[in-house]
Fold this protein.
Amino acid sequence: MSYLPADRTMNTVKIKICGITNAADAAAAVHAGADALGFIFYAGSPRCVEPERAAEIVAGLPPLVVPVGVFVNATVDEVDEVCGNTGIQVAQLHGDESPGFCSKLDRPVIKALRVRDESWKSDAAAYAVGAVLLDTFAEDRYGGTGVPFDWRLVEGSPHRIILSGGLNPRNVAGAVRSVRPYAVDTGSGVEREPGLKDHGKIRAFVGAARGAT
């Protein structure tokens, strides 16, 4: 799969709601206008969902809402098996997966990188993936910090960027205006407690992201 550069002229940012664990939250995100839903298959996350449950939720999604599976240091066979059994269309890799690992998967790949300085750009250059997701660096976890990083670190990037890390209904419009990302991603920013979404926050997040110019 070839790497696709960002289109900085795009007016409509895509929106992914991550950490979906139940059908009600999935329906709320779909009705609000989300383009993609994230299902976390990493046992270390409070938003982890069993593949059987994810398959039930994915089966009820409209055809143009993309289900994304989030993995951390799983094997190629594990990723392909879970995606095949659940209907997941895109693999989002949040661990220490190499460029070679990504090329072995039988589906589109999003590679997540944790940002603490501009070194993420040289790291990203090695990956021939559809997009890179930028999250906030933390020593003790692979993502889900709920804390933004310095968005100025994205300036000048040729990559197709999915911006994550501490996004919520209050700051997402500013993030869209500042970074002009391909997409924005939130999980904890629209929750009432870990693993359970606040449907009002989902609507507010989507509305703010869509309204940013």
About this structure: Strands lie at 14-17, 36-40, 66-71, 90-93, 109-115, 131-136, 161-163, 183-186, 191-193, 196-197. The CA atoms of residues 112 and 133 lie 4 Å apart. Confidence is low (pLDDT under 50) at residues 1-10. The first helix runs from residue 23 to 32.
